[in-house]
Amino acid sequence: ARRILIDFIAYLKLANDFYSKNISLKRAFENVLLKERPWLYTTLAMACYGNSDEKRDLSEFYAKLGCNKNMINTVLRFGKLAYAVKNITVLKNFTKRIIK
């Protein structure tokens, strides 16, 4: 979980330090982070393995990137369920079909 937050801290710091004067370039750089750390899978991982502070920080980072904070928080609330789904093959395959 900490590795995920380190990525967010670094990418957002780089975006602010190097691209703060060019909004479109900054947004493009932030989109790299969204591709590297897709919100759903990253949030599910954090829901399973992160503590409450890490979950709050992740929610704030995604909000800065323009993601729906309510959606992120909903996924985070169902973290134990996500962990159970991850360990049951039938449910995992069903979930993959729903997400696609």
UniProtKB/TrEMBL annotation:
Keyword annotations of the record: Transferase
GO molecular function: transferase activity
Protein name: Abequosyltransferase RfbV
Gene: rfbV
